[in-house]
Prior knowledge:
Layout: E1 2-17, E2 23-33, E3 40-46, E4 61-73, E5 76-88
Antiparallel strand pairs: 1-2, 1-4, 2-3, 4-5
Amino acid sequence: MEIIGKLLQKLPLQSGIGRTGNSWQKQEFVIETIEQYPKKVCANLWGDKLDMLDTVNIGDTVKVSFSIESREFNGKWYTDVRAWKIEPATESPMPTAAPAYQTAPAAPVAPAAGTIPPMASEDMDTFTDNGGDDLPF
Length: 137
């Protein structure tokens, strides 16, 4: 998946030792989508991908390619937005407004045989409310 947005924040680098004894590093960052109702998304980079975050600055418009994965731990679910590519956005991130479509007036349709054509407004009786209950039932 891909998302285009403005880089808002680079969070501190985190590191540790995993269960298998291997060391790990990750860094999270926050981008804000550029759309009518902007959304903030916190994503992360792991291991050798950390250098990609150094190529962009806060305030830059970036395109982030990522994958989403959820996992369960002690009855709770955790979702990980893992970026695998970050690059400056070259295309316009703002979607263009849909053009206002103008429809041509429909051509008049002749009534089917045996039907009564609709009456013109001047042929209709006017309704006057005289305050009484004049319902037929």
